[in-house]
Amino acid sequence: MDLVLLTAQRQSLIREWLARDGRVVAARLAQTFGVSEDTVRRDLRELAAAGHCRRVYGGALPFAPDGGSLTRRLASDPDRKRRLGEAVAALVEPGTTLFVDAGSTNLRVAETLPEGAGLRVVTNAPAIACALQDRSGIEVHLLGGRLDPVTGACTGTQTVRDAARFRPSLLVLGACGLDPDAGVTAHDLDEAELKSALAAGAREIVVAATLDKFGSAASYNVVPAAALTTLVAEHDCPAETLAPFAALGVRVVRAAPEDAAAPFRAPRAR
User: Fold this and answer.
1) Burial (CB count within 10 angstroms: exposed 0-12, middle 13-18, buried 19+), residue 174
2) Residue 247 exposed, middle or buried by CB count within 10 Å (0-12, 13-18, 19+)
3) 63 in helix, strand or coil?
4) Residue 19: in which H helix or E strand, if any?
5) How far apart are CA 99 and CA 170, in angstroms?
6) Fewer CB atoms inside 10 Å of the end CB: C or N, the chain?
């Protein structure tokens, strides 16, 4: 650029490029603006403090979307979330002990779990426990703790302590933000602590994510992307968005299109 831009002008452009490109790189911004990387890093810190982005190594990502209360999130894209739920449920083997983390998409996972399969489901979400209470062949364990009315999740010291009693074969992990570099992130510190503890004890970790979660990051780290076993994405998620996860060794599964007559079942990796 020919002229040195004022701070507000630089930050406005950074926000515009974040929305357009999904990330910004500090070194490239410094070169474009004709300023030092320290100046750019200061801009990114100020934008992050204002909730406009999440700083990551070498640059920044858009801040993960906050869909509001559980009730509001359940009303958003219900058919797409149901397809994601069906794709996850198709991966669950009979007799599995699984932890289903709180979240609107994970509630759809619970609703589509097969009956009579001898499943043991542990959850920190009362809504998920209620969805399973009348399902035959599914044993349900609900963790205690402080109930967050926004997320619909029980969190806190008691929840983490109770969760440590279980060693699930499969963790269906909720993600507020998801990026190959930033990994899985969460908006709430207590929620992030519980998710990290669950991930440390699970044999396999599955994340089902709607399109808006990709390429974004929330305030707190949960696990790196390479820790995931399987990533379930919507049928129209761009291939270039999923390729970096596959390169990390994560198995990528697509949900069925919305007009499909039956849930998509991906072959298990050998």
Assistant:
1) buried
2) exposed
3) strand
4) helix 7-21
5) 6
6) C
Percentages (nearest 5) of helix, strand, coil residues in the chain: 40, 25, 40
Q: How far is CA 24 from CA 10, 59, 97, in A?
A: 12, 5, 41
C-alpha 159, offset from chain centre: 20
8 A C-beta contact, residue 156 and residue 136: no
Question: Does pLDDT of 265 surpass 80?
Answer: no
224 burial level (CB within 10 Å; 0-12, 13-18, 19+): middle
**Residue in the block written with tokens 């794709």:** 87
- Confidence band of 258 (pLDDT split at 50, 70, 90): confident
Beta strand pairing call for 204-209 and 170-173: parallel
CA nearest neighbour of 171 among 143, 130, 199: 199
State pLDDT tens for residues 194-230: 999 999 989 999 999 999 899 899 889 999 999 999 9
Instruction: Report whether 133 contacts 152 (CB < 8 A).
Output: no
- Structure tokens that stand for 256 in this block: 């069925």
Task: Measure the CA–CA gap between 69 and 117, rounded to whole angstroms.
Answer: 32
* CA distance to 12, 44, 45, 154, 243, per residue, from 40 (Å): 12, 6, 9, 39, 29
The full set of domains in the chain, from first to last, is: 7-62 (1.10.10.10), 70-254 (3.40.50.1360)
pLDDT band with cut points at 50, 70 and 90 for residue 68: low
**Considering Cα of 166, then 167, then 168, then 172, what sign does the dihedral take?**
positive
As a whole number of angstroms, the distance between CA 205 and CA 223 comes to 10
pTM for this entry: 0.80
Diameter over CA atoms, the chain: 69
| Contact assessment for residue 152 and residue 129, using Cβ atoms and an 8 Å cutoff | no
Distance of alpha carbon 5 from alpha carbon 2, whole angstroms: 9
